[in-house]
Amino acid sequence: MMTGDIYLSPDPAANTFLKENPFGLLVGMLLDQQIPMERAFSAPYLLNARLQNHFDKVLDASNLASLSEEQMIALFSEKPALHRFPKAMAAKCHLLAERVVADYHNDAAALWEEAESADALLATLKSLSGFGTDKSKIFLALLGKRFHVAPIGWEQASDPFGRADEVRSVADASSPEALEEIRLSKARMKAAAKA
């Protein structure tokens, strides 16, 4: 995948892994809830290492889909846990893996490469386990801004996250400074919502 600058994790190896592993990128986005963004997007790299250590497998949809519920929970719960809610997120990740295997022949990138339009891609993302409307829009914006996946109309379909003049989500995470700006933006939105 051709990419721009990304700073989804403070670990350069984790960022490289996300650039090279479309399924890992999907998993990172799935995990990006109720934990810091950097932890969510570092998790696929850690999960890949655990799969190699325990099963001599790499992180892809078919390898995850082949694991039992107990094996998934063990991978997610091993210290440090991959998520605040390892059991629930292991189950969601397993469903995501099964969907990629069944509908995209184990090729996560086909999810966006085969989309006929930005609206079709957004609808597909929203149909994935653990992907609501905002998460789907953010992932679409992430693909457009950082990975140069730009079906016609992606900016509008991902609005407000696709806006070029705002830094507000993981789609804008291109540097440590951008990450800090994203944090400030989220804090302002939370404060405004409480007011």
SSE map:
Layout lengths: L11 H9 L1 H10 L5 H19 L5 H5 L3 H9 L8 H19 L5 H4 L4 H9 L6 H14 L7 H4 L18 H19 L1
Please characterize this protein's 3D structure.
This protein has 195 residues and is mainly α. The protein has one domain: Endonuclease III, domain 1. Helix content is 62%, strand content 0%. The radius of gyration is 16 Å and the shape is globular.
Query: How would you describe the shape?
Result: globular
Name the helicity range.
Answer: 55-70%
CATH topology (fold) name: Endonuclease III, domain 1
**CATH homologous superfamily, by name?**
Hypothetical protein, domain 2
CATH class assignment: Mainly Alpha
Number of strands: 0
Indicate the low-confidence ranges by residue numbers: none
State the separation between the terminal residues, measured CA to CA.
42 Å
Task: Give the tags.
mainly alpha; single chain; 0% strand; 195 residues
Quick take:
With 195 residues, the protein is mostly helical. 62% of the residues lie in helices and 0% in strands.
